[in-house]
Amino acid sequence: MPYCPQCLIEYVEGMNKCEDCGSDLQPGSPPAAPPRVEITNEKDVKLVSVRTFTGGTAQMDADLARNILQSQGIPSVLPGETSAELLPVLDVHMLVREEDAERAATVLEEYLDTDAAADTDGDDSTEGD
Ligand SMILES: [Zn+2]
After folding, report:
1. pLDDT in tens, 1-35
2. In principle, which of 16, 31, 92, 116 could form an S-S bond with 58, CB 3.0–4.6 Å?
């Protein structure tokens, strides 16, 4: 089964481009997805707030940021995940491990603080048609 190296989604035989991102599909099976790190379960981990989202879309923005970091292998924690309650959130503080904070901030700046095409740092993603 071919798969998209960007999305790690498997496609049926015969496909050669990812429907989501337009990347050329690779033959074989996708490599194991980056392990989803549950840092909330780790002990002795120091979390720091890397970014604060505010406003009506704070939660959405935070989720997006989280996905971005996840794709870079940086685990993050958003409040609300640790409590079952869904409270109206004013500020969403995104937490990452202290050791990841600098990198996370850089990644988020690249993705969130620039226009959509932040694909300038040697990333090997292919711009499709
Ligand atoms: Zn894709």
Report:
1. 899 888 888 899 888 999 989 999 988 877 665 55
2. 92
Residues at Cβ < 5 Å from ligand 1 ion = 4, 6-7, 18, 20-21, 23
Q: From the CA of 108, how far away is ligand 1's center (Å)?
A: 20
pLDDT, residue 34, reads 52
pTM of the complete model beyond 0.85: no
* CA 129 / ligand 1 centre spacing (Å): 13
Residue extents of the structural domains in the chain: 1-33, 39-112
Q: How far is the CA of 17 from the centre of ligand 1 (A)?
A: 8
Angle 109-8-96 (CA atoms, 0-180°, nearest 5)? 35
Q: Considering the domain 39-112, what is its CATH architecture?
A: 2-Layer Sandwich (3.30)
3-state secondary structure of 69: helix
pLDDT of 83: 46
Average pLDDT over residues 102-107: 94
Q: What is the Å distance from ligand 1's center to 29 Cα?
A: 14
Coil vs helix vs strand at 109: helix
